[in-house]
Recover the amino acids of this structure.
C-alpha cells in the first residue's frame, strides 16, 4: 500500500464516519423543530418534553458531527493538495459559502437554542431551532454543489493548468446537483425519522411514557414514509441522469459488461468475474432495466467493455472500469434498504393511525432494528457514487492518483490515519453509549420538567422586555 | 483595491476574528479545570463560553474555506506543509469540541475529570500550535518551485516558533481570564482577576520577546516601512493597559484591550506578509503571493458578491447572540443543558 491508497482509505473512513452524524443532524433538526412548533402552537407541555428528550440525542450527535466536519475541510488541503490547487477555483467557493451561510447559522443558533429556553420569548426560541434546521439543509446543498462538480463538471474551463470557474449559474444549475440534492436531503430526513421512530417504538414496547412516544412515533413515521418515497423517486431520476452523464458508473452498478439487448434486463444478483470481464451466473428480470433507465420497455444500455473502448479513444490508454463488485453490491444494499424503509414506513403509518402499536411487539422490535437501515443505505449510496466514479476524482478531468499531496510522506499519512481512526472509534463507542443511556433512562419526565436547564437563569417575563 | 487585495483582507479579517473570539474560549477551556474548585464552579466557568465556542470555531472553518476558494495554492501549500501540526490541531479540536457536550451527560466524577482533561489539552494545544504556525509564517518556510513545502515538520520547531507557541498560549489564557471577569461575578470573578494579574508580567515579557525577535529576525513588522512596527508595539501597550485595568477592576476595558492586543498582533503579521501569503525561505522568487496563489478573476468576483451580502447578517446575529447571553453567571445558577 502506498501513500495514495492510504490517503484514499483515510478519506473513505473519515467521511463515512462523519456521514453517520450529518444526515442524523439534518433529520433530527427538522423533526425537533416540528415537535417544538406543535408545542408552541398547542401549548401542550408533552411536546416540550418530547422536544427536549430527542433534543439531547440531537445535541450529542451534532457535537460529533461538527468536530468530525472540521477534518473534512482540512483534509482536502492536507492529503489532496494537487487536487486542491487544480479545482480550488470551482470547488473552494462551495466550501466557503457553506461556512459563511450555513455553519455560522447552525452554530450560532444552536447555542441560542440550547441556552435560550428560559431566556427568550417562545416564538423567538422556536425560530432558532428552525434556523438550525435551515442551516443544515443549506449546508447539504452547498457541499453537494461541490460533489456534483466532481461527478459532472460544468461551468469551468481549463486555463493555466487549473480548472477555473466560468459560470456560477451553471454550477448551481448542474443537472446532477438537482437530482442528487433532493435524494440526499430526503435520505437525511429519513435517517433522523427512523431514529426517532425506532426509539419511540422501543419506549412504547417498554411502556415508558407511552402517550408521548406514540405521538413522537406518529410524527416521525410520517416524515420517514414521505421521505422514503421521495428518496426512491429522486434516486430513480438520478439513475436516469447517469445514463447520459456517467454511463460507466451505471453499467458497473448493473455489472453490465457488454451492451445489453433491447429491452435491457435488470440483474438482480450476479457472480461477477472482473478478470474475465463477465458474470458467470446471474438472475435477471427481462425489460426492467430499460424501464428504470428510460421509463419504457425498450432501449439499450452500453456495457463496460464498450465504454472502456470509447474512453480509451477519448482519454488515452488506461483502465476506466471502476471496482465493479463494490459498485454493484453497494447499489443493491442501498436499494434494498431503501425499499425496506418504505415498506416499514407505510405499515408503521398505518399501525400508528389504527393505534395498534402496543399490540404488535414484533413490529416495534423491527422498528428498533430499522434504525440501522438509513445508515446502511446512506453509506452504500455514497460508496457507490464515489467508487463508481473511479478512476476519476473529477469525472473526465482529473484522476484520483494525480490528486494526492506530493510533499506528504507515507509515514505522515499513516500517523494521521491511525490517529483519526483510533479517535473516531472511541468517539463512536462513547456516542452509542450515551445514546443508549439516554434512551434507557426512565425518568426523563422529571429531568425535563425541572425547567432550569438554562445557565442564565432568568424567567421569561424578565427576559422578554430586553429582547423584544 | 483589486479583488486579490480584497480577498487577502477578508481572510486576514476572518483570522483576526477567529483569534480574538476563539482566543478567549481557548483560554477559558485551558483554565476552567484548575480555576474551578468544585463541580459547580467549573460549570460556571465552562458555561461562560457554552453558547459561543462553536460559532467562534466557524470563523476558522470559514477562513479555511475562503483560502481554498480565493487562494487555492495558499490553502494547499499551507495545509499539506503543516501536516503534522495540523493533525495534532485537529485531534485537539475534536476532543475539545465533544468534551463540552460529553462531560454533562454522565453524572460521575471520573467521567467528568476525563473530559475536563480533554478540554484542557484540547484548548491549550491549538494556541501553541497556532503560535508555532504564525512564527513560521513570519520567518518563511522552505517552499520550492512547485509551491510545495519540503523538509518535514521538525524544522518548524525552531526557538522563535516555540516562543511563539508559549506566547500565544499565555495571551489566550489572559484573554480568557478577562472574558471570565466580564461573564461572572463575586468570588469566581475575583479569582480570575487574581490569576490574570499573576500571569500578566510573564505574558508581557513573552510578547515583548516575540515582537523584539520578530523585528530583529524577520521583515514582517517593517516590510512596508519602519512605522509599521507601531502595530506590534501597540499590541504590547494594549496588553499593558489591559493588565492595569484588570488591577483596577475595570473588566470591560481589560477585556477590550486583550482583544485589541490579539487583533493588532495578528493584523501586524498579515500586513507584514502582504502581498505575500506564504514566504519562501528559498528566496523571493518562490514566495506565494496574492497574485500567483489566487483563483481566477471570475471566482473572486462571485465570491465577493456572496460574502459581502452574507457577512452583515452573520455579524448581526452573532452580536445578537452575545447580547442575549449578556447576563453574568453565578455559582448557584443551574447550569448545563
Amino acid at each position: 500500500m502506498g501513500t495514495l491508497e492510504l490517503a484514499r482509505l483515510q478519506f473513505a473512513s473519515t467521511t463515512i464516519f462523519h456521514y453517520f452524524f450529518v444526515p442524523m443532524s439534518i433529520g433530527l433538526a427538522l423533526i425537533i423543530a416540528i415537535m417544538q412548533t406543535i408545542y408552541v402552537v398547542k401549548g401542550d407541555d408533552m411536546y416540550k418534553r418530547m422536544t427536549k428528550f430527542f433534543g439531547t440525542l440531537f445535541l450529542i450527535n451534532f457535537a460529533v458531527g461538527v468536530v468530525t466536519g472540521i477534518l473534512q475541510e482540512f483534509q482536502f488541503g492536507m492529503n489532496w493538495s494537487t487536487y486542491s490547487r487544480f479545482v480550488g477555483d470551482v470547488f473552494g467557493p462551495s466550501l466557503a459559502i457553506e461556512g459563511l451561510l450555513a455553519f455560522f447559522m447552525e452554530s450560532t443558533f444552536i447555542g441560542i437554542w440550547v441556552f435560550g429556553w428560559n431566556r427568550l420569548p417562545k416564538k423567538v426560541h422556536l425560530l432558532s431551532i428552525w434556523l438550525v434546521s435551515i442551516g443544515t439543509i443549506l449546508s447539504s446543498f452547498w457541499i453537494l454543489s461541490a460533489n456534483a462538480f466532481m461527478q459532472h463538471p460544468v461551468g469551468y474551463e481549463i486555463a493555466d493548468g487549473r480548472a477555473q470557474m466560468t459560470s456560477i449559474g451553471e454550477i448551481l444549475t448542474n443537472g446532477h446537483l438537482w437530482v442528487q440534492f433532493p435524494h440526499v436531503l430526503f435520505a437525511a430526513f429519513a435517517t433522523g425519522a427512523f431514529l426517532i421512530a425506532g426509539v419511540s417504538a422501543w419506549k412504547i414496547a417498554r411502556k415508558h411514557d407511552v402517550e408521548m412516544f406514540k405521538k413522537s412515533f406518529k410524527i416521525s413515521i410520517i416524515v420517514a414514509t414521505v421521505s422514503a418515497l421521495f428518496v426512491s423517486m429522486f434516486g430513480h431520476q438520478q439513475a436516469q441522469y447517469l445514463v447520459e452523464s456517467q454511463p460507466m458508473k451505471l453499467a458497473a452498478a448493473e455489472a453490465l459488461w457488454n451492451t445489453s439487448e433491447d429491452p435491457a434486463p435488470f440483474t438482480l444478483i450476479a457472480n461477477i468475474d472482473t478478470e474475465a470481464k463477465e458474470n458467470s451466473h446471474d438472475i435477471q428480470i427481462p425489460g426492467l432495466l430499460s424501464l428504470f433507465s428510460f421509463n419504457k420497455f425498450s432501449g439499450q444500455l452500453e456495457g463496460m467493455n464498450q465504454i472502456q473502448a470509447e474512453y480509451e479513444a477519448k482519454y488515452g490508454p488506461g483502465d476506466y472500469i471502476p471496482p465493479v463488485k463494490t459498485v454493484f453490491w453497494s447499489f443493491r444494499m442501498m436499494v434494498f434498504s431503501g425499499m425496506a424503509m418504505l415498506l416499514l414506513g407505510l405499515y408503521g403509518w398505518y399501525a400508528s393511525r389504527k393505534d395498534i402499536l402496543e399490540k404488535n411487539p414484533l413490529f416495534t422490535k423491527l422498528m428498533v432494528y430499522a434504525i440501522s437501515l438509513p445508515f446502511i443505505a446512506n453509506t452504500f449510496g455514497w460508496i457507490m457514487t464515489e467508487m463508481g466514479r473511479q478512476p476519476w476524482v473529477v469525472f473526465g478531468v482529473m484522476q484520483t492518483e494525480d490528486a494526492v499531496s506530493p510533499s506528504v510522506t507515507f509515514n505522515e499519512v499513516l500517523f494521521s490515519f491511525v490517529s483519526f481512526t483510533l479517535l473516531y472509534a472511541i468517539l463512536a463507542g462513547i456516542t452509542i453509549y450515551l445514546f443508549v443511556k439516554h434512551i434507557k433512562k426512565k425518568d426523563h419526565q422529571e429531568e425535563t420538567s425541572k425547567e432550569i436547564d438554562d445557565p442564565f437563569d432568568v424567567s421569561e417575563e424578565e427576559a422578554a422586555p430586553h429582547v423584544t | 483595491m483589486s479583488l486579490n487585495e480584497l480577498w487577502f483582507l477578508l481572510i486576514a479579517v476572518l483570522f483576526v476574528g477567529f483569534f480574538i473570539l476563539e482566543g478567549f474560549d481557548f483560554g477559558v477551556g485551558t483554565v476552567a479545570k484548575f480555576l474551578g474548585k468544585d463541580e459547580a464552579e467549573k460549570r460556571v466557568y465552562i458555561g461562560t463560553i457554552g453558547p459561543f465556542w462553536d460559532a467562534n470555531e466557524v470563523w476558522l472553518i470559514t477562513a479555511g474555506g475562503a483560502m481554498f476558494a480565493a487562494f487555492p495554492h495558499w490553502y494547499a501549500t499551507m495545509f499539506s506543509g503543516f501536516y503534522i501540526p495540523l493533525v495534532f490541531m485537529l485531534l485537539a479540536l475534536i476532543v475539545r469540541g465533544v468534551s463540552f457536550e460529553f462531560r454533562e451527560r454522565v453524572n460521575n466524577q471520573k467521567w467528568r475529570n476525563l473530559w475536563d482533561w480533554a478540554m484542557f489539552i484540547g484548548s491549550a494545544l491549538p494556541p501553541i500550535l497556532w503560535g508555532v504556525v504564525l512564527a513560521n509564517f513570519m520567518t518563511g518556510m522552505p517552499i520550492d518551485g512547485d509551491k510545495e513545502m519540503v523538509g518535514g515538520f521538525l524544522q518548524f520547531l525552531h526557538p522563535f516558533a516555540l516562543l511563539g507557541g508559549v506566547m500565544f498560549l499565555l495571551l489566550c489564557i489572559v484573554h480568557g481570564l478577562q472574558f471570565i471577569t466580564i461573564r461572572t461575578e463575586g468570588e469566581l470573578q475575583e479569582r480570575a482577576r487574581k490569576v490574570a494579574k499573576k500571569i500578566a508580567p510573564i505574558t508581557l515579557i513573552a510578547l515583548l520577546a516575540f515582537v523584539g525577535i520578530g523585528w530583529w529576525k524577520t521583515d514582517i513588522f517593517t516590510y512596508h516601512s519602519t512605522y509599521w512596527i507601531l502595530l506590534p508595539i501597540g499590541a504590547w501597550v494594549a496588553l499593558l493597559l489591559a493588565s492595569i485595568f484588570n488591577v483596577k477592576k475595570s473588566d470591560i476595558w481589560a477585556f477590550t484591550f486583550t482583544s485589541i492586543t490579539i487583533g493588532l498582533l495578528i493584523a501586524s503579521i498579515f500586513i507584514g506578509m502582504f502581498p505575500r501569503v506564504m514566504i519562501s525561505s528559498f528566496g523571493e522568487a518562490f514566495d506565494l503571493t496574492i497574485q500567483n496563489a489566487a483563483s481566477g478573476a471570475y471566482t473572486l468576483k462571485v465570491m465577493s458578491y456572496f460574502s459581502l451580502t452574507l457577512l452583515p447578517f452573520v455579524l448581526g446575529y452573532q452580536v445578537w447572540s452575545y447580547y442575549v447571553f449578556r447576563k453574568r453567571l453565578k455559582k448557584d445558577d443551574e447550569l448545563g443543558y
